[in-house]
Amino acid sequence: MRGVELVDWPELPENMELELEAIALHGLEENFEVLESLSLQEHQELAQEISPAAVALHRYFLAQRTPNFMNPKKKTVTNRPKVGRNEPCPCGSGKKFKKCCLH
Q1: Strand locations in 1-100 (E)
Q2: For the chain, what are the domain ranges?
Q3: Which of 14, 89, 95, 99 is the most exposed, having the fewest neighbouring CB atoms within 10 Å of its CB?
Q4: Does residue 97 register a pLDDT over 70?
Q5: Measured in whole angstroms, how far is the alpha carbon of residue 45 from the centre of its chain?
Q6: How far apart are CA 10 and CA 85, in angstroms?
Q7: Measured between alpha carbons, how far is 60 from 43 in angstroms, rounded to an integer?
Q8: What is the mean pLDDT of residues 52-74?
Q9: Whole-model pTM over 0.70
């Protein structure tokens, strides 16, 4: 929930908002009074919703990522010329590329 507070999350579909609320119930201090008023059985039933909610949110955001991120074998095109391992590093350090920026 700290991550949600730190980053400006995009608007979620209603069903995903419900998933986030299942996590927020246990993850935000402002909800602790609500949790304390529940019976042990009610608390345990609500706690069981956290894991499926996290998985659902993960799947939702995974589907939102770019195709290039999802397919790491796909090569991206760059305008930079390819630097050989034994050539001087383009950063200007004077070291060979393999000992500098290539690591």
Answers
A1: none
A2: 2-70
A3: 14
A4: yes
A5: 26
A6: 42
A7: 26
A8: 76
A9: no
